[in-house]
Amino acid sequence: MRAGFPRGPRRALALAAALLCLGPLAGCGSGSDDGVVHLDYLSLAWQQESVEANKALVEEWNETHPDVQVRYVQGSWDDVHDQLLTSFMGGEAPDIIHDDASDLTDFANGGYLADLTGYLPGGLRSDIPQESWDTTTYDGGIYGVPFLVEPRVLIANTRLLQESGVRIPTTEHPWTWEEFEEVSRTLTRDTDGDGERDTYGVAWSMKEPVTQSVNLSLSTGGRLFYREGDEDVIRYGAADASVAELINRQVNVDHTAPDSSLGMSGSDTLPGFFAGRYALLPLNFSYRQQVQQQAPDGFEWSVLPMPTGGGEYGLAQGVAPQTLSVAEDSDHKQAAVDFIAFLTRADHVVDLARGDWMLPTSTTALADPALNTGEYGWRTGVEIAAQLRPSPVLGVRGYPEWKDKVATPAFQEYYAGEFGVDELRDRLAGDGNRILDRYQR
Amino acid sequence: MSAVKPAPRAVTPSRRRAARAAGRTGQYLALAAYLIFLGFPLLWLVSVSFKSPQELGSIDPTWLPRHPSLDNYRKAFDTQPLLRAALNSLLVAGCASVIAVAIAVPAAYVMVRYRTRVSQAGTVWILISQMFPFVLIVIPLFLVLKNLHLINSLTGLIVVYVVWNLPFSLWMLQGYVKAVPRSLEEAAAVDGAGRLRVLTGVVLPLLTPGLVATLMFSFVTAWNEFFFALVLLKTPEKQTMSVILTHFTGAEGAVDLGPLAAAAVCATLPTLLFFALLQRRLVGGMLAGAVKG
């Protein structure tokens, strides 16, 4: 008698065989022996309008450039660093890489990104301000095209602002930080007289406190990261700490900002904003998309510039633009840069900017009427754009480790009132410089 | 003077019945609370997937959507290749789990029935292999698969999942094999059955619950796996469900919550169905594994 499997396992084996036959079929890729250059474009666009704009541009490119075909590959902001690191190490990186400037430092230093200096067309170089190019320039090489940027702005509940009678700031006459503190006090109210605050002047979402704490320090003349000779050092003086101290005061002394929002992301604060619990939200410019989408019918909101530390600083704040880079391993660097130049052409980058609710770095694109509209605060953003500065963290080796291990817990505890600014300084600069030293040996 | 102990009060049958009913009610209440606790994330996910952006932005969330709509599902399917991703996940998880179990069954049998140094070393290897974090092996693995031309290939991902699932599958199945009485095999051998016949005709049928449990574990692990799929698959046509879900999230915690919830419901359904279909056998398997032969 023939030994055989019982019915169940035999069926399972048949299934395995069938699936195994399908596996290799599904794994087949397209060949590239047709003389046509094939490029992979890793895009991190995620909002529907932005994805559609990107795909439409890729399609347009492929139709007009039959000899260079681009494949759209969608990535995710959450995991792009790990994904790229693995791809670089394995020599399988996409040709064109969408990322942000703060992620480029280590990749550029590791030799994984191509220096685009000799490939970029003159028109593109001159259309983007030097301030923006500085965000992607390391040791004299340009490792990415900065094409989209987003400043932090104040999203305001228009009704509460008007009822309070405070002066409405403009980009020409923004609030000073002192005025902002005063306005926050005026806006903070106990409407039903039960001793509990019903409306807070401002809600600081500090789930990720480091970037905004560092970038906003530029508005008072700080920057945390200073260049001494060939080395980066962290200093945390009065100018560097001014905005952080103000936030701490609002949460722990004035109580014009709730401590409950400190652990929130920007999205988490929106329900409270729509319900009138928070009058002002400091958020990134692209959050306007969520506000517009989620605001109840009839809810009026406006976009205001962040406060300034004084006339000499204007509306300065640090930013890390979104970038397009080319992998060093790419065999077709010029073709990849040509595609980047096509994507970042003024009329195209306007579409991308609108899709992502961000600002283009291109000066021509910034002048586009589609962006110079009062609707959804676009004009406020455009007027701020010229005063944006490269984030001090850009180009600092060891910044990610400092941010994760030192700065994030230190800022979170400081804002929660666990300790004072001296302890914060000890941690940020003392512990922080030891980390930077390790990277700069 | 001796203390007089009060006589114990007689417990009447009706009081005993009432106590038993109260105990049973308490048990059911505890069970219901536990079920709600377990089901809460899923129920909330389903609820969110039917809510409009305005409702998601409300400070007073409700269990039932005020104006239920399929817009989130429409948007999720319009913007991302969810169906294709689900098929890829099904293919990869199906193949990986079946192959892992097919390899694990004879291996577990040998490791249980033949206690040699090799089998003991195998057991230690299983434990050690579970201690390696993903990030430690992903780059070497990437290079190995690249040399085998298995990058950006579902076959490559299946191979990875088989290897990743194999140790735990072996570990699980060893328990089930141990529960099969050796006397049954000896009886079959006395009747003239060879080793292979004993394995396929006697042991395997008794292992069915264990096979199902292991298969389910392997399938769900492969279905949910994210990091290997992220780094090994490049083209959108080959990406699996877990990778596609991240496309609804932006930088700094921004998220397109409604469509993400809708896509997450779609990603959860197959595993729920799989579990519903096999759960009776799974429970049987657990009991079988718990009983000594």
UniProtKB/TrEMBL annotation, chain A:
Domain of life: Bacteria
InterPro entries, sorted: Bact_solute-bd_prot1, SBP
Alphabetized Pfam families for the sequence: SBP_bac_1 (PF01547)
Name of protein: Sugar ABC transporter substrate-binding protein
Keyword terms, alphabetized: Signal
Signal sequence, renumbered to the chain: 1-26
